[in-house]
Write a structure and sequence with these properties.
Distance between the termini of chain A: 70 Å
Helix content of chain A: over 70%
Number of helices of chain A: 5
Shape of chain A: elongated
Strand content of chain A: under 5%
Order of helices and strands of chain A: HHEEHHH
Strand order of the largest sheet of chain A: 1-2
Oligomer: homodimer
Largest interface: A-B, 36 and 36 residues
Chain lengths: 130, 130
DNA sequence: GTTGTAGTTTACGTTAGCGTCAATGGTATA
DNA sequence: TATACCATTGACGCTAACGTAAACTACAAC
Protein backbone atom coordinates (compact mmCIF):
# COMPACT_ATOMS: atom_id res chain seq x y z
CA UNK A 1 0.00 0.00 0.00
CA UNK A 2 2.71 2.47 1.00
CA UNK A 3 5.27 3.06 -1.70
CA UNK A 4 8.87 4.13 -1.48
CA UNK A 5 10.20 7.14 -3.30
CA UNK A 6 11.82 4.94 -5.91
CA UNK A 7 8.63 3.13 -6.72
CA UNK A 8 6.78 6.39 -6.99
CA UNK A 9 9.44 7.92 -9.22
CA UNK A 10 9.33 4.88 -11.45
CA UNK A 11 5.55 4.90 -11.61
CA UNK A 12 5.47 8.47 -12.83
CA UNK A 13 8.64 8.15 -14.83
CA UNK A 14 10.49 10.98 -13.13
CA UNK A 15 13.52 11.23 -10.89
CA UNK A 16 13.40 10.99 -7.13
CA UNK A 17 14.73 14.52 -7.08
CA UNK A 18 11.58 15.68 -8.80
CA UNK A 19 9.44 14.10 -6.11
CA UNK A 20 11.49 15.75 -3.41
CA UNK A 21 11.25 19.04 -5.22
CA UNK A 22 7.48 18.92 -5.11
CA UNK A 23 7.70 18.25 -1.44
CA UNK A 24 9.94 21.30 -1.07
CA UNK A 25 7.19 23.28 -2.75
CA UNK A 26 4.76 22.07 -0.15
CA UNK A 27 2.69 20.05 -2.59
CA UNK A 28 3.36 16.71 -0.93
CA UNK A 29 3.58 15.60 2.68
CA UNK A 30 4.65 11.97 2.66
CA UNK A 31 4.75 10.22 6.00
CA UNK A 32 8.02 8.91 7.32
CA UNK A 33 8.98 5.39 8.30
CA UNK A 34 10.74 4.55 11.55
CA UNK A 35 14.02 5.22 9.74
CA UNK A 36 12.89 8.55 8.39
CA UNK A 37 12.22 7.33 4.89
CA UNK A 38 9.35 8.78 2.91
CA UNK A 39 6.30 6.60 2.50
CA UNK A 40 3.66 7.49 -0.06
CA UNK A 41 0.02 6.78 0.57
CA UNK A 42 -2.69 6.58 -2.05
CA UNK A 43 -3.55 10.17 -1.33
CA UNK A 44 -0.05 11.38 -2.13
CA UNK A 45 -0.14 9.43 -5.36
CA UNK A 46 -3.43 11.06 -6.28
CA UNK A 47 -1.87 14.44 -5.62
CA UNK A 48 1.09 13.58 -7.82
CA UNK A 49 -1.22 12.58 -10.61
CA UNK A 50 -2.91 15.94 -10.33
CA UNK A 51 0.40 17.73 -10.34
CA UNK A 52 1.63 16.12 -13.51
CA UNK A 53 -1.65 16.56 -15.30
CA UNK A 54 -1.86 20.13 -14.16
CA UNK A 55 1.59 20.79 -15.52
CA UNK A 56 0.90 19.09 -18.80
CA UNK A 57 -2.23 21.08 -19.35
CA UNK A 58 -0.98 24.50 -18.58
CA UNK A 59 -2.32 25.13 -15.12
CA UNK A 60 -0.18 27.58 -13.22
CA UNK A 61 1.85 26.45 -10.18
CA UNK A 62 -0.54 28.44 -7.99
CA UNK A 63 -3.55 26.71 -9.48
CA UNK A 64 -1.95 23.32 -9.11
CA UNK A 65 -1.22 24.06 -5.50
CA UNK A 66 -4.82 24.99 -4.83
CA UNK A 67 -6.10 21.91 -6.57
CA UNK A 68 -3.74 19.71 -4.63
CA UNK A 69 -4.88 21.27 -1.40
CA UNK A 70 -8.37 20.01 -2.15
CA UNK A 71 -7.00 16.59 -1.30
CA UNK A 72 -5.28 17.69 1.84
CA UNK A 73 -8.02 19.05 3.97
CA UNK A 74 -11.10 17.45 5.29
CA UNK A 75 -12.77 20.78 5.20
CA UNK A 76 -15.40 20.83 7.83
CA UNK A 77 -16.61 24.40 7.77
CA UNK A 78 -19.58 25.07 5.55
CA UNK A 79 -18.03 28.20 4.12
CA UNK A 80 -14.81 26.37 3.31
CA UNK A 81 -16.70 23.60 1.62
CA UNK A 82 -18.76 26.03 -0.38
CA UNK A 83 -15.67 27.79 -1.56
CA UNK A 84 -14.11 24.49 -2.49
CA UNK A 85 -17.11 23.42 -4.51
CA UNK A 86 -17.21 26.75 -6.27
CA UNK A 87 -13.56 26.51 -7.06
CA UNK A 88 -14.11 23.05 -8.49
CA UNK A 89 -16.87 24.34 -10.76
CA UNK A 90 -14.54 26.95 -12.07
CA UNK A 91 -11.74 24.48 -12.70
CA UNK A 92 -14.10 22.21 -14.57
CA UNK A 93 -15.13 25.05 -16.79
CA UNK A 94 -11.52 25.80 -17.52
CA UNK A 95 -11.00 22.20 -18.46
CA UNK A 96 -13.92 22.42 -20.84
CA UNK A 97 -12.25 25.42 -22.40
CA UNK A 98 -9.02 23.53 -22.84
CA UNK A 99 -10.82 20.62 -24.43
CA UNK A 100 -12.49 22.98 -26.87
CA UNK A 101 -9.15 24.46 -27.81
CA UNK A 102 -7.64 21.06 -28.44
CA UNK A 103 -10.58 20.17 -30.64
CA UNK A 104 -9.99 23.37 -32.56
CA UNK A 105 -6.32 22.54 -32.87
CA UNK A 106 -7.20 19.18 -34.33
CA UNK A 107 -9.58 20.79 -36.80
CA UNK A 108 -6.84 23.04 -38.08
CA UNK A 109 -4.48 20.14 -38.48
CA UNK A 110 -7.20 18.34 -40.37
CA UNK A 111 -7.48 21.26 -42.73
CA UNK A 112 -3.76 21.15 -43.35
CA UNK A 113 -4.05 17.44 -43.88
CA UNK A 114 -6.76 18.04 -46.44
CA UNK A 115 -4.61 20.43 -48.39
CA UNK A 116 -1.63 18.14 -48.31
CA UNK A 117 -3.42 14.97 -49.29
CA UNK A 118 -5.09 16.78 -52.14
CA UNK A 119 -1.77 18.04 -53.34
CA UNK A 120 -0.42 14.56 -53.02
CA UNK A 121 -3.22 13.15 -55.12
CA UNK A 122 -2.59 15.77 -57.80
CA UNK A 123 1.08 14.97 -57.90
CA UNK A 124 0.46 11.28 -58.19
CA UNK A 125 -2.15 11.90 -60.88
CA UNK A 126 0.35 13.87 -62.92
CA UNK A 127 2.75 11.00 -62.73
CA UNK A 128 0.34 8.72 -64.49
CA UNK A 129 -0.66 11.32 -67.08
CA UNK A 130 2.69 11.24 -68.74
CA UNK B 1 -2.61 43.08 -43.12
CA UNK B 2 0.99 43.20 -41.95
CA UNK B 3 1.38 43.75 -38.26
CA UNK B 4 4.17 45.30 -36.24
CA UNK B 5 5.87 43.47 -33.43
CA UNK B 6 3.97 45.53 -30.87
CA UNK B 7 0.62 44.64 -32.33
CA UNK B 8 1.53 41.01 -32.42
CA UNK B 9 2.79 41.04 -28.86
CA UNK B 10 -0.39 42.69 -27.71
CA UNK B 11 -2.56 40.26 -29.64
CA UNK B 12 -0.97 37.28 -27.96
CA UNK B 13 -0.49 39.04 -24.67
CA UNK B 14 3.26 38.51 -24.47
CA UNK B 15 6.29 40.79 -24.61
CA UNK B 16 8.08 41.75 -27.78
CA UNK B 17 11.08 39.98 -26.35
CA UNK B 18 9.17 36.73 -26.45
CA UNK B 19 8.40 37.19 -30.13
CA UNK B 20 12.03 37.91 -30.88
CA UNK B 21 13.03 34.91 -28.85
CA UNK B 22 10.93 32.63 -31.00
CA UNK B 23 12.58 34.11 -34.01
CA UNK B 24 15.97 33.34 -32.47
CA UNK B 25 14.83 29.76 -32.19
CA UNK B 26 14.07 29.73 -35.88
CA UNK B 27 10.34 29.34 -35.41
CA UNK B 28 9.45 32.61 -37.09
CA UNK B 29 10.78 34.42 -40.14
CA UNK B 30 9.03 37.77 -40.30
CA UNK B 31 9.75 39.91 -43.33
CA UNK B 32 11.44 43.25 -42.89
CA UNK B 33 10.26 46.69 -43.87
CA UNK B 34 12.45 49.20 -45.73
CA UNK B 35 13.70 50.33 -42.33
CA UNK B 36 14.48 46.83 -41.15
CA UNK B 37 11.46 46.50 -38.94
CA UNK B 38 9.74 43.16 -38.60
CA UNK B 39 6.43 42.75 -40.38
CA UNK B 40 4.20 39.83 -39.54
CA UNK B 41 2.05 38.21 -42.17
CA UNK B 42 -0.97 36.03 -41.56
CA UNK B 43 1.24 33.00 -41.87
CA UNK B 44 3.51 34.12 -39.07
CA UNK B 45 0.50 34.76 -36.88
CA UNK B 46 -0.76 31.27 -37.59
CA UNK B 47 2.62 29.92 -36.59
CA UNK B 48 2.53 31.89 -33.36
CA UNK B 49 -0.88 30.52 -32.56
CA UNK B 50 0.48 27.04 -33.02
CA UNK B 51 3.46 27.80 -30.83
CA UNK B 52 1.38 29.02 -27.91
CA UNK B 53 -1.08 26.22 -28.16
CA UNK B 54 1.68 23.71 -28.45
CA UNK B 55 3.28 25.09 -25.33
CA UNK B 56 0.04 25.14 -23.41
CA UNK B 57 -0.68 21.55 -24.22
CA UNK B 58 2.63 20.03 -23.44
CA UNK B 59 4.13 19.48 -26.85
CA UNK B 60 7.89 19.48 -26.70
CA UNK B 61 9.94 22.27 -28.28
CA UNK B 62 11.07 19.81 -30.96
CA UNK B 63 7.50 18.86 -31.76
CA UNK B 64 6.42 22.46 -31.91
CA UNK B 65 9.24 23.21 -34.28
CA UNK B 66 8.20 20.40 -36.57
CA UNK B 67 4.60 21.46 -36.52
CA UNK B 68 5.52 25.04 -37.28
CA UNK B 69 7.63 23.91 -40.19
CA UNK B 70 4.53 22.43 -41.74
CA UNK B 71 3.52 26.00 -42.42
CA UNK B 72 6.85 27.01 -43.79
CA UNK B 73 7.41 24.73 -46.68
CA UNK B 74 5.43 24.23 -49.78
CA UNK B 75 6.61 20.70 -49.89
CA UNK B 76 6.66 19.57 -53.43
CA UNK B 77 8.26 16.15 -53.27
CA UNK B 78 5.88 13.24 -52.94
CA UNK B 79 7.97 11.62 -50.26
CA UNK B 80 8.11 14.82 -48.26
CA UNK B 81 4.39 15.26 -48.52
CA UNK B 82 3.73 11.72 -47.48
CA UNK B 83 5.92 12.11 -44.47
CA UNK B 84 4.16 15.33 -43.60
CA UNK B 85 0.74 13.75 -43.83
CA UNK B 86 1.86 10.83 -41.73
CA UNK B 87 3.26 13.17 -39.14
CA UNK B 88 0.00 15.02 -39.06
CA UNK B 89 -1.92 11.80 -38.45
CA UNK B 90 0.31 11.05 -35.54
CA UNK B 91 -0.09 14.51 -34.04
CA UNK B 92 -3.84 14.26 -34.31
CA UNK B 93 -3.81 10.99 -32.46
CA UNK B 94 -1.76 12.58 -29.73
CA UNK B 95 -4.28 15.36 -29.48
CA UNK B 96 -7.03 12.79 -29.10
CA UNK B 97 -5.05 11.30 -26.26
CA UNK B 98 -4.74 14.64 -24.56
CA UNK B 99 -8.44 15.27 -24.91
CA UNK B 100 -9.17 11.93 -23.32
CA UNK B 101 -6.93 12.76 -20.42
CA UNK B 102 -8.61 16.08 -19.83
CA UNK B 103 -11.98 14.38 -19.87
CA UNK B 104 -10.68 11.96 -17.27
CA UNK B 105 -9.39 14.85 -15.21
CA UNK B 106 -12.79 16.44 -15.28
CA UNK B 107 -14.42 13.21 -14.20
CA UNK B 108 -12.19 12.99 -11.17
CA UNK B 109 -12.97 16.55 -10.22
CA UNK B 110 -16.63 15.72 -10.57
CA UNK B 111 -16.21 12.87 -8.15
CA UNK B 112 -14.58 15.18 -5.66
CA UNK B 113 -17.40 17.62 -6.22
CA UNK B 114 -19.90 14.88 -5.48
CA UNK B 115 -18.25 14.07 -2.19
CA UNK B 116 -18.03 17.69 -1.18
CA UNK B 117 -21.57 18.65 -2.07
CA UNK B 118 -22.87 15.61 -0.26
CA UNK B 119 -20.92 16.54 2.81
CA UNK B 120 -22.21 20.04 2.50
CA UNK B 121 -25.79 18.81 2.36
CA UNK B 122 -25.21 16.70 5.45
CA UNK B 123 -23.77 19.61 7.35
CA UNK B 124 -26.64 21.87 6.43
CA UNK B 125 -29.11 19.14 7.36
CA UNK B 126 -27.59 18.82 10.80
CA UNK B 127 -28.02 22.51 11.31
CA UNK B 128 -31.76 22.22 10.94
CA UNK B 129 -32.05 19.09 13.07
CA UNK B 130 -31.20 20.91 16.23
C1' DG C 1 16.89 70.87 -33.59
C1' DT C 2 15.14 68.25 -29.96
C1' DT C 3 11.89 65.58 -27.68
C1' DG C 4 9.28 61.38 -27.94
C1' DT C 5 8.05 56.97 -29.35
C1' DA C 6 8.94 52.51 -31.62
C1' DG C 7 11.99 49.89 -33.74
C1' DT C 8 16.86 47.36 -33.97
C1' DT C 9 20.96 44.31 -32.00
C1' DT C 10 23.98 42.77 -28.32
C1' DA C 11 24.54 41.11 -24.06
C1' DC C 12 24.16 40.21 -19.43
C1' DG C 13 20.67 39.02 -15.50
C1' DT C 14 17.12 36.10 -13.43
C1' DT C 15 14.15 32.24 -12.08
C1' DA C 16 11.95 27.66 -12.23
C1' DG C 17 12.80 23.02 -12.39
C1' DC C 18 15.24 20.02 -11.74
C1' DG C 19 20.47 17.34 -12.19
C1' DT C 20 24.24 16.14 -9.68
C1' DC C 21 27.55 15.72 -6.26
C1' DA C 22 28.97 15.13 -1.20
C1' DA C 23 28.50 13.46 3.29
C1' DT C 24 25.98 10.47 6.18
C1' DG C 25 23.00 6.56 7.96
C1' DG C 26 20.16 2.11 7.89
C1' DT C 27 19.59 -2.83 6.21
C1' DA C 28 21.17 -7.09 4.22
C1' DT C 29 24.02 -10.22 2.04
C1' DA C 30 28.87 -12.38 1.75
C1' DT D 1 33.36 -6.77 9.25
C1' DA D 2 33.02 -5.30 4.75
C1' DT D 3 30.60 -4.50 0.57
C1' DA D 4 26.55 -2.88 -1.48
C1' DC D 5 22.51 -0.54 -2.03
C1' DC D 6 18.88 2.16 -0.54
C1' DA D 7 17.60 6.21 1.92
C1' DT D 8 18.43 11.11 3.93
C1' DT D 9 19.71 16.43 3.73
C1' DG D 10 22.26 20.18 2.03
C1' DA D 11 24.26 22.68 -1.61
C1' DC D 12 25.92 23.97 -5.82
C1' DG D 13 25.26 23.54 -11.13
C1' DC D 14 22.79 24.01 -15.32
C1' DT D 15 19.49 25.20 -19.06
C1' DA D 16 15.27 27.18 -21.05
C1' DA D 17 12.66 31.13 -21.41
C1' DC D 18 12.51 35.05 -21.16
C1' DG D 19 13.52 40.24 -18.51
C1' DT D 20 16.15 44.14 -18.80
C1' DA D 21 19.50 47.56 -19.89
C1' DA D 22 22.66 49.79 -23.27
C1' DA D 23 23.57 51.85 -27.49
C1' DC D 24 21.83 52.86 -31.83
C1' DT D 25 18.41 54.25 -35.91
C1' DA D 26 13.94 56.05 -37.99
C1' DC D 27 10.08 58.91 -38.09
C1' DA D 28 6.71 62.37 -36.23
C1' DA D 29 5.42 66.29 -33.46
C1' DC D 30 6.66 70.45 -31.30
Amino acid sequence: MLKTIQEVAKQFNVSTRTIRYYEELGLLNPNRSSTNQRTFSKKELAKLKLIFRGKRYGFSPEEIKEMVLLFDYDRTGIQQLERTVEYGEQKMQEIDGKIAELVQMKKELQQLQGIFTEKLATLKGEMHDE
